Amino acid sequence: KKQDKLKRESSAGGVVFKRIKNQESRIKTKAELAKVLWMVTKSRPSELFPKPVWRLPKGWLDDKDGEKKPGLLASGQRKATEEELQKAAIREVKEEGGIEAKIVSKIGTERYFFTLKKKKILKFVTFYLMEWLKDLPQGAGFETEKVEWLLYKEARKKLSYSGEKKVLDKAREILSSGVQESLV
User: Fold this and answer.
1) Is residue 42 part of a domain?
2) What is one Gene Ontology biological process annotated in the Swiss-Prot or TrEMBL record (predicted)?
């Protein structure tokens, strides 16, 4: 039997928004929604990914070997619980964005293929809509070169991956549909 060359990886991430000052807990009008800022981060070039990209913060559910390899959850050896997915998303937003944020709603799980070191990998990324709470004094981690807060159109234009542009669209839809009322 031919060995399955396809590896699986599971990650979680966040689409983080920040309200303009003095905004009430509920976004009621299109004008208010238009003024919401969205976080995008620019990756620092690395050996594996030499080209910097603008992205949404995300990362493996867990890791091993000093962050070099995916752990049991990230490699799919054990199915992650909703709580583990949420914890990973909050952690990644903290590490890559240098902020504290709270989960407002689940956006969904994206699936895509990519090739790394001649290995084809099927990646699952569960994204959450999150609201900014505060900037952290330590700032963003080493993987991030820059963090920007942009209006929806600018944020969408800046994101390097079409899949993440769609995730941002979904996040904005959820926010505009008033889903956040029940969770705030």
Assistant:
1) yes
2) AMP biosynthetic process
- Could you give the CA distance from residue 54 to residue 50 in angstroms, rounded to a whole number? 13
Domain harbouring 87, CATH code: 3.90.79.10
Is 143:96 a contact under the CB 8 Å cutoff?
yes
Return d(Cα 164, Cα 144) in angstroms, integer: 17
> Which residues contact residue 146 at a Cβ distance below 8 angstroms, ignoring those fewer than 6 apart?
41, 42
pLDDT for position 177:
83
Confidence of residue 117 (pLDDT cuts 50, 70, 90): confident
Percent of the chain with pLDDT over 70: 86
Q: Is 124 left (phi over 0), alpha (psi -120 to 50) or beta?
A: beta
Q: How far apart are CA 39 and CA 69, in angstroms?
A: 27
Domain count, the chain: 1
Per-residue model confidence as pLDDT tens digits over 8-41: 999 999 999 998 765 556 666 667 767 899 999 9
Q: What's the CA gap between 82 and 105, in Å, rounded?
A: 12
Long-range contacts of 74-81 (CB under 8 A, 24+ apart): 74/9, 74/10, 74/11, 75/7, 75/8, 75/9, 75/10, 76/8, 76/9, 76/10, 80/10
